[in-house]
Amino acid sequence: MKLIKLLTCCLLFVTLASCRKAEFMPEAEGQPVPHTDITITLKEVLTASPYTLFKAAWERSNMNGILKAKGNKAPFILLVPSDAAFIADGLTLEVINKTTPELLDSVLLYHVIAGNMKVEDFKISENRFAGRSLLENPDLRVKPAVSGAAPSDPYFYLQYLKYADGALFINGKKESTTAPVQAKDGVLWPVDHVLHKPTKTLLQVLQEDGRFGMYLELTERTDALFAELSEGNVQHDFKMGLTYLPSHANFNVVFNSIFAIPDEVFHKAGYQTVDDILALNDRNPLPYFDYETYSMVGGLATDTLVAYHRWGAMLSYNDPQTGRGEEGLTNFYSNDLTNSLLSNYTIVGSGSYGKLPVYTNPLEFSKEAGVVKVNVKGADHPAAAITDADINTIMGPVHVVDHLIVPKGFKL
User: Fold this and answer.
1) Quick one: pLDDT band at residue 23, thresholds 50, 70, 90?
2) Angle between helices 202-209 and 213-229 in degrees, nearest 10
3) Cβ(168)–Cβ(113) under 8 Å?
4) Which of 312, 326, 336, 315 is closest to 399 using CA atoms?
5) Within a 13 Å sphere around the CA of 402, how many CA atoms are in the beta-carbon half?
6) Sign of the CA dihedral with 69 first, then 71, 76, and 78 last
7) Closest Cα to residue 132, out of 155, 150, 108?
8) 81, 102, 280, 367: which sits with the fewest CB atoms below 10 Å from its CB?
């Protein structure tokens, strides 16, 4: 009898609660928002567009067959240069008609990104969209996206897209203020330039530019000095991460960026020659190799001078037995350099066993009159302004700076 009474009370309570909920639910106001499905295809959008030279190149190429082979339902983002952009790049209708379909394929594949993107979602996102173009370099390999699935993945040229201040930025460069067109199977986004794939590594750009002779000589001589001091037992290789990995590695490309130091910055800081810079190492006893711990004791002042120009990765914890953790990707373009996105970004992880201290981004960023500035967190030196941003490479961007990026208390 008690159980029956208890169940009756519970049912009564639920009934009363339901009544209250119905009683206080507000009445619907206004008209329902109509939902219109997008039915137009990307091919139809392209056909109806005014971009005659892009369409001419497309029709002469093998692109229709290439995309068909990838599946009729596969979504794509088309980055479509205007006719003016084609002409400025020398790709007139006459040139297009004389160009082989295979060469046109390589141009157009770089302008097609795999994957879908709802334009409105993209516009409100603070994050960049890492777009993988359909253009592959068969000579290059990258770390596999899925651990254990394969020793490496193919290298496809990347396009980093970001929407900010009413414009589309690609790899840090402002490329369009023209409205995109959403199709059911992708997006057509007009752009103001014909996009060119990068052809050089970070190191090749530094070597061929002509502005960074002292920086390159300094790091080469520092590598040699460290090899001598460590008796060849500790790796100190400035080129690592800036050029292709050795042939015995499973993959040969890693993604990085660098804040490059031109000669004039060293001159402005009081160093006229590389010997002047190396004299900084006379401040303290030189490091030496300890065979008991099998590690170096001490460090070079010149390492601190240049380390933050590569995100300070070489200053992360280095275990005598297992070395450093795995370095994170740092291929950030100028419009990615914000504290909100990168303040706690992991530069060097905790290693294979997850036991090493994580090294997070030591840099902070600001923007003045459209110019991005970089400094070490808490530094008492002037921030470095990026004077030449987003020099694109196979691995990521080179940013040229006008000051040395050094930590608090470091005496130049």
Assistant:
1) very low
2) 120
3) no
4) 336
5) 10
6) positive
7) 155
8) 102
Residue 342, φ and ψ in degrees, nearest 5: -115, 0
- Residue 214 tokens, joined: 């002292």
Contacts of 67 (CB under 8 A, 6+ apart): 74, 76, 112
* pTM for the model: 0.88
Q: Is the pLDDT of residue 15 over 70?
A: no
User: What is the C-alpha to C-alpha distance for residues 379 and 376, in angstroms, rounded to an integer?
Assistant: 5
Among residues 127, 123, 222, which one has the least CA distance to residue 163?
123
Cα(236)–Cα(33) distance, rounded to whole angstroms? 62
Three-class secondary structure assignment of the chain: CHHHHHHHHHHHHHHHHHHHHHHHCCCCCCCCCCCCCCCCCHHHHHHHCCCHHHHHHHHHCCHHHHHHHCCCCCCEEEEEECHHHHHHCCCCHHHHHHCCHHHHHHHHHCCEEECCCCHHHHHHCCCCEEEEEEEEEEEEEECCCCCCCCCCEEEEEEEEEEEECCEEEECCEEEECCCCEEECCEEEEEECCCCCCCCCCHHHHHHHHCCCHHHHHHHHHHHHHHHHHCCCCCCCCCCCCCCCCCCCCCCCECCCCEEECCHHHHHHCCCCCHHHHHHHHHCCCCCEEECCCCEEECCCHHHHHHHHHHCCHHHCCCECCCECCCECCCCCCHHHCCHHHHCCCEEECCCCCCCCCCEECCEEEEEECCEEEEEECCCCCCCEEEEEEEECCCCCCEEEECCCCCCCCCCC
Tokens 């390492």 correspond to 303
Window from 32-36, 52-56, 239-243, 302-306 with minimum mean pLDDT: 32-36
Q: Based on the number of CB atoms within 10 Å of its own CB, is 410 exposed (0-12), middle (13-18) or buried (19 or more)?
A: middle
